[in-house]
Specification:
Structural class: alpha/beta
Helix content: 25-40%
Number of strands: 8
Radius of gyration: 18 Å
Order of helices and strands: EHEHEHEHEEHHEEH
Strand order of the largest sheet: 3-2-1-4-5-6-7-8
Distance between the termini: 41 Å
Bound molecules: zinc ion
Shape: globular
Number of helices: 7
């Protein structure tokens, strides 16, 4: 019996949820997703125009129910960073065997990492690159490199794109990258890999990497070839301010991570 905590049921997260929920060993899923389904979601998502205006968490639960009426699915229609809802979120983290992160926003990834490390849970992350030219799947295990270690290592050593993965939720957004469409096939490939690695981890398989990069297109100056994967084993950095020797105790660290995340969002 496995219990999974997933954050995000967007166009990629929904693919992961759909594939993970089919595994009969997965008996319980807690889904954190605060958003409402919008008309611009429709062409890259699982649901039609009739569902616009409904909470994504409700739609996701309805989808899973079709295939796994036996599965216990709990939805938390809440922002992962909502300070007042942290006790509820932490209870969900404490009760899970593994976390799945399918959100694009950096503050949410750092906060999810802090939560998972506080409760010593493994977790996986999928990231689609700008324009759907490729994607990453990362695996985090207790005691191994944290998200900060991995992100800073890859920024130093791998030239994919200088920008963080964009948020595809709003094609009309002011930030240019968010207007570059990743097609549903690119999202599906990366999210499918994310689900496959997640199911392997649940079954006790060591994927043999911390980070997998799969280019989906040949892009001058970025990817010499399409569909040749790169695997990275990224060690924990002793200098890491989040998980290294200089980091504070877990509870304090979580507060710092949340403060930093909220500051970056412009809350105060
Ligand atoms: Zn670290």
């Amino acid at each position: 019996m496995q219990s999974v905590l997933q954050v995000g049921a967007g166009s990629g997260g929904m693919v992961v949820l759909d594939l993970v929920c089919r595994d009969p060993d997965v008996r319980r899923i807690v889904l954190i997703e605060p958003d409402v389904y919008k008309s611009h979601n429709v062409h890259r998502h699982y649901f039609g125009h009739n569902d616009v205006g409904r909470p994504k968490a409700e739609l996701a639960a309805r989808w899973v129910q079709q295939f796994r009426p036996d599965l216990e699915l709990q939805t938390l229609v809440v922002d992962l960073l909502d300070r007042e809802r942290q006790p509820e979120i932490e209870a969900a983290v404490a009760g899970c065997d593994l976390g799945v992160c399918a959100v694009d926003a950096e503050p949410a990834k750092y906060h999810f990492d802090a939560l998972m490390r506080k409760y010593q849970k493994p977790w996986t992350l999928g990231e689609v690159l700008s324009g759907g030219i490729g994607g990453w799947v990362h695996v985090f295990r207790p005691g191994d490199a944290c998200y900060g270690c991995v992100a800073s290592h890859l920024q130093r050593t791998v030239a994919t794109d200088a920008t963080p993965p964009p948020d595809y939720a709003d094609p009309a957004a002011a930030v240019r990258e968010t207007t570059i469409p990743a097609n549903k096939a690119s999202i599906g490939v990366v999210a499918g890999l994310h689900a496959s690695v997640t199911l392997g981890l649940l079954a006790g398989t060591d994927p043999g990497f911390t980070s997998l990069l799969l280019p989906l297109a040949k892009v001058d100056g970025v990817f010499a070839e399409a569909l040749r994967p790169f695997r990275f084993r990224i060690p924990r950095s002793p200098e890491c301010l989040i998980c290294g020797a200089h980091a504070g105790p877990a509870g304090e660290e979580l507060d710092v991570a949340l403060d930093q995340a909220l500051a970056r969002l412009g809350h105060e």
